[in-house]
Write the structure tokens for this entry.
Amino acid sequence: MSGVPRMYATPLTSNQTNEKSSKGAEGPHLQDLPQNSPQALMKPGAVSTVPNIFKEVRGDWVLFHPVYTPEELHAVEVMHREAKTLSDTIAYNFVKLARWGFDVISGYKHKPMPPNASVLTVEELRKGGYIMDDRQWLKRFLFLESIAAVPGMVAATLRHLRSLRLMRRDSGWIHTLLEEAENERMHLMTFMTLRNPSYFFRALVLGAQGVFYNAFFLCYLVSPRTCHRFVGHLEEEAVLTYTRCIKEIENGRIPEWTSLPAPEIAKDYWRLGDDAKFLDVIYAVRSDESTHRFVNHSLANLNYKTDVNPFALREPDMNVKGSTLWCVHSSPSENGTDEIFLPDQFRARRAEKYVEESHKIIEGSK
Ligand SMILES: [Fe+2]
Ligand SMILES: [Fe+2]
């Protein structure tokens, strides 16, 4: 672990299977939280894992996933984490390669706007290849989501097998990874309500899945840390893509989506209002991507063999996840910046504080 930033001062490591169990370290549940906690379930015995920020809680057949307040939806920033180690550099270069392949497959070309863009109509801009139409955006989303749902499932599978093989506790990683995989799949299911992809497109997804699943599987066997870093960077790209899309819709450049209602599946999944629009769905999806970005960059900072997943019991809200890329331990006395905090350091401290609180909850329940 030398040279790798730690997430917190005193690492919380896995218990042996014969040690006393503690809440949150293995398969935690929101019911473990105090009843007056904002994340506690609204009614005892409810199977929903949706936080009680909404009046009505229905049974929920999906895994835990965040439901965002309107303020959280707007708290997401486009961010990029600079590589600090060789493994970081490898991970980022793989993302650049994946991005290039993805651009080729989805036919995306970034063409700078012409000087007279403000006087051109949407049709003229589309004809000139300066902006994408709704079908091109959807094609991009569908391909992106069909791939994005793979890493969480692969990582969860391998951690599951590792736990079986070594007969050791997993320390709460599997569930977070499965949640991520399902969350990405729900993105795909949501966008599928708007388009029925061609057989050619499906064949491309099939081929890409075959290659990516196996490649990620092998890479995760070699270096889980590099793989989580890779996903962290991939999610940076996803946040960027959805942020661009939001801007385009709000600037009236995708008129088909200006007042398009949200699909029912999305209203149910993210607990959106009856009058929710497709734009609200894109905001929610972007927030999810920001969650994956934060979680994966953070997991890449952990020792995958011994550390407990700090997000097993709870997750920070979007004000932390949307503007922070990773959790690092950097105490003022260590780096000599007792008085001066750069914005990034401040953000890292805020995230670190959150993680430390989570560990106190877990430790307190031992
Ligand atoms: Fe996604
Ligand atoms: Fe994602």
